[in-house]
Amino acid sequence: MVNFYMYYLMIIMFMFGCIVFISSRKHLLCTLLSLEFMVLMLFMLLFMYLNFMNYESYFSMFFLTFCVCEGVLGLSILVSMIRTHGNDYFQSFSILQC
């Protein structure tokens, strides 16, 4: 019974991460942090589900590998944006420029 409450808690935390992702439009770093929070909540849900169904947790390692790749790509975009524009504000640069 406690596991179902944990599922509900993880789903609510994932929804809060979605709300923060939708509402943060100023900084790229806040957007990336909310994406990582959502990925961690999905990982916890996956891990709890695999343990509940008595499956092996081998698939969770693949999920973590792809999560790390997603985080690295986001950080590389953040670093290149800071090097070219000096900050991570979305309003400081125009997408139409080459």
Automatic annotation (TrEMBL):
Keywords associated with the record: Electron transport, Membrane, Mitochondrion, Mitochondrion inner membrane, NAD, Respiratory chain, Translocase, Transmembrane, Transmembrane helix, Transport, Ubiquinone
Source organism, top-level taxon: Eukaryota
A Gene Ontology molecular function term of the record: NADH dehydrogenase (ubiquinone) activity
Reaction it catalyzes: a ubiquinone + NADH + 5 H(+)(in) = a ubiquinol + NAD(+) + 4 H(+)(out)
Keyword Ubl conjugation among record annotations: no
Segments passing through the bilayer: 6-22, 29-52, 58-82
Annotated EC: 7.1.1.2
InterPro entries assigned: NADH_UbQ_OxRdtase_chain4L/K, NUOK/Mnh_C1-like
UniProt membrane topology term: Multi-pass membrane protein
Main localization, broad class: mitochondrion
Cited function: Core subunit of the mitochondrial membrane respiratory chain NADH dehydrogenase (Complex I) that is believed to belong to the minimal assembly required for catalysis. Complex I functions in the transfer of electrons from NADH to the respiratory chain. The immediate electron acceptor for the enzyme is believed to be ubiquinone.
Protein name (Swiss-Prot/TrEMBL): NADH-ubiquinone oxidoreductase chain 4L
Organism: Aedes rubrithorax
Lineage: Eukaryota, Metazoa, Ecdysozoa, Arthropoda, Hexapoda
